[in-house]
Amino acid sequence: MRVNGYDIGPNADLRDADLCSANLIGANLIGAYLCSADLRGANLIGANLIGANLIGANLGGANLEGAYLEGAKLGGADLRGANLEGAYLVSAKGVIVFSLGRHFGFSYKYDGTVFVQIGCKHHSLEHWNNNIKDIGTKNKYKENEIHRYATQLSMLPALWSTMEEVK
Hints:
Blueprint: E1 2-3, E2 6-7, E3 95-99, E4 104-110, E5 113-118, E6 121-124, H1 125-138, H2 143-162
Antiparallel strand pairs: 1-2, 3-4, 4-5, 5-6
Helix pairs in contact: 1-2
């Protein structure tokens, strides 16, 4: 498979590749080296990225729904606005995943800042902590749901402090 002039396949060296808005639905990228690749807005639905190195990749707005990211390295990747709904993230490095009811959530570090996405809402952890009640109320969450998410958010700094930097 060839996309934007790049050979797409298992163990492909795609460092710094420009795959912005690329159609990579179901692509086999097992073990691919995608460090610093530009995958903004790429369609990676059902893509196989098991063991892929995505350190520093820009995945902003990418659709990774149902993608297989087992053991993938996501440290320093920009996941702002990425859709990871239904993605298989077991043993993925550089991301914390949680589900507390209504919406799937994940947290990652980018450029020294911890970000959190819950459902389609994406903010820095600091913003979430300062505005969780307002955000929850505006989105018609019940008080007990807001409390569950607030509790999870309060645990993230401790979880991040125990994680090794992904290299």
